[in-house]
C-alpha cells in the first residue's frame, strides 16, 4: 500500500513539473475565487498606491493611499471612481477592467496566446480585444496574477502591479456595494 501511495505521489509530482506555464496559470486562475493585494499604479508617470480586493467575476474594490479618500468599486456591472470632491460612474463593459476582471475570458485568451517570459520572473500575455490592448502579468514562480498594463478609460497609459497577494480569503459581500454620490 505504501508503495502505491508513493508511486501516485511521485507521478503527480512529475506530471506537475512538466506542466506548461499556461497550464499552471490556468489551474491557478481556476482555483482563485478572490485576491487581496497591495498595488502600485503608474498612470502617465503619476504613482498611486493602495489596497485592492478582486472577486471573480468582475468585482473590484480599491482604496488608494491618498488624502482625497479615492476609491474604485465595481459590482460587476458598473464602475465607480469616487474621491472627496468627485464621483464618476461608468458601465463596466465600456472599460478595460471588464476584460481584466473576467476570469473565464482571461483563461480563454491565455489558451489561445503565446506567452512571453520577462527577466525570468514574469510571464506575460498580450490580449487585443475590443480596441483594447491589455498586457497581463503573472509571477513565474507562483503563477499568480501580479498586474496589468493598458490604456484606461481616460486614454492614459496605466501600469498596475501587485504585492502582498492573498488568495481566497473571506470577504464581505457588501464590499462591492456601489457608494452613493453624496
Descriptive report:
- The protein has 182 residues and is α+β, with helices and mostly antiparallel strands.
- It is built from four helices and eleven strands.
- The chain has an eleven-stranded antiparallel beta sheet with strand order 6-5-4-3-2-1-11-10-9-8-7, covered by helices on one side.
- The longest helix is centred in the N-terminal third of the chain and has 16 residues, at 2-17.
- It has a single domain, classed as Clam (outer membrane lipoprotein receptor (LolB), chain A), CATH 2.50.20.
- The chain is 22% helix and 43% strand.
- It has helices at 2-17, 21-30, 97-100, 103-112; strands at residues 34-43, 46-55, 59-64, 71-75, 78-82, 87-91, 116-118, 122-129, 132-139, 145-151, 157-167.
Number of strands: 11
How large is the count of helical segments?
4
Structural Rg: 18 Å
The whole-number mean of residue pLDDT values reads 90
Give the count of structural domains.
1
Structure class: alpha+beta
CATH class: Mainly Beta
Proportion of residues in β-strands: 35-45%
Query: H/E order of the elements?
Result: HHEEEEEEHHEEEEE
The fold-level CATH name is: outer membrane lipoprotein receptor (LolB), chain A
Distance between the termini: 66 Å
At CATH's second level, what is the architecture?
Clam
Widest sheet: strand ordering? 6-5-4-3-2-1-11-10-9-8-7
How would you name the CATH homologous superfamily? Lipoprotein localisation LolA/LolB/LppX
Proportion of helical residues: 10-25%
- Oligomer class: single chain
Amino acid at each position: 500500500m505504501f508503495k502505491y501511495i508513493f508511486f501516485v505521489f511521485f507521478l503527480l509530482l512529475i506530471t506537475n513539473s512538466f506542466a506548461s506555464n499556461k497550464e499552471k496559470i490556468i489551474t491557478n486562475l481556476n482555483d482563485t475565487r478572490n485576491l487581496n493585494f497591495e498595488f502600485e499604479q503608474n498612470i502617465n508617470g503619476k504613482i498611486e498606491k493602495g489596497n485592492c480586493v478582486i472577486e471573480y467575476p468582475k468585482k473590484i474594490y480599491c482604496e488608494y493611499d491618498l488624502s482625497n479618500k479615492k476609491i474604485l468599486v465595481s459590482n460587476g456591472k458598473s464602475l465607480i471612481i469616487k474621491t472627496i470632491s468627485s464621483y464618476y460612474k461608468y458601465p463596466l463593459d465600456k472599460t478595460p477592467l471588464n476584460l481584466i476582471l473576467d476570469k473565464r475570458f482571461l483563461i480563454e485568451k491565455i489558451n489561445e496566446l503565446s506567452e512571453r517570459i520577462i527577466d525570468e520572473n514574469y510571464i506575460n500575455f498580450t490580449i487585443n480585444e475590443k480596441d483594447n490592448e491589455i498586457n497581463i502579468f503573472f509571477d513565474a514562480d507562483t503563477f499568480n496574477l501580479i498586474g496589468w498594463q493598458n490604456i484606461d478609460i481616460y486614454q492614459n497609459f496605466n501600469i498596475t502591479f501587485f504585492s502582498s497577494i492573498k488568495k481566497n480569503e473571506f470577504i464581505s459581500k457588501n464590499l462591492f456595494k456601489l457608494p452613493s454620490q453624496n
